[in-house]
UniProtKB/TrEMBL annotation:
Annotated keywords: ATP-binding, Nucleotide-binding
Protein name per UniProt: ABC transporter ATP-binding protein
Superkingdom in the source lineage: Bacteria
Amino acid sequence: MSAVTVTAVDRSYGDRAVLDGVDFSVELGEFVSLIGPSGCGKSTLFSLVAGLERPDSGEVLVGGAPAAPGRAALMPQKDLLFPWRSVLDNCALGLQVQGVSRREARARARELLPTFGLAGFEDAAPGRLSGGMRQRAALARTVLQGRDVLLLDEPFGALDALTRTEMQLWLQKVWQEHRWTVLMVTHDVREAVLLSDRVLVLDPRPTRVHHEVRVTLPRPRTAETLATSGFVALEQELLEHLHGSRRADDQRRMLSR
Ligand SMILES: Nc1ncnc2c1ncn2[C@@H]1O[C@H](COP(=O)(O)OP(=O)(O)OP(=O)(O)O)[C@@H](O)[C@H]1O
């Protein structure tokens, strides 16, 4: 059984079709990335998998059952840490919302924080953390919810290039240890290849998956992997498909004028 199955999903807003026949699946413990141009419906797709919205037609299954709130944990683009709560209390929040007592939620968060490089920062206010640390805290809060699937929406988009690479390598390490099932949206082709088992390219307006790349590069992938011919070839293949879909999108827009 797949962790996530999206079958023939359509979604429109008014008379505007955003998703049209989207099909894909994510296997248990797999790391899959979605890439596509801005505004192509990635966040809409995430809302459907998170069970926050329903498709007009088609089916979204998480763990074999229809998507519903509470099956997948969503880490939004902005970290949304509350400035007035400590790092520990921010991380515990996801569990408290599920009805876990504050004491128990804090204990579980305290246990996990060292893995996320946040030992010693439990009582700090989020404002004292670097950008990378804030993202690790937001990810800890997401992971702590103990859901079947993690949905990461451009988790490192706001970080500088050096911190971003560090965070990607760190995420790969903790993912290899824990084997969460991850579906990640990113605009960064390099990030997608570095982290994923498979990368799906979305063709916009209306959106569907139009190309899939399987990344079989051995793990752990390192900073050196980025320069290998195998890595560069995959990056190139994805860029060609991404630009191809962008060109097709421009043509469609020209024709509809
Ligand atoms: N609630 C809504 N009502 C009307 N239109 C919407 C709604 N939500 C999204 N849209 C439209 O659907 C399209 C897809 O939006 P969505 O946010 O899913 O794209 P995205 O790929 O996540 O964008 P980005 O990469 O910029 O974050 C956009 O054109 C957007 O304007």
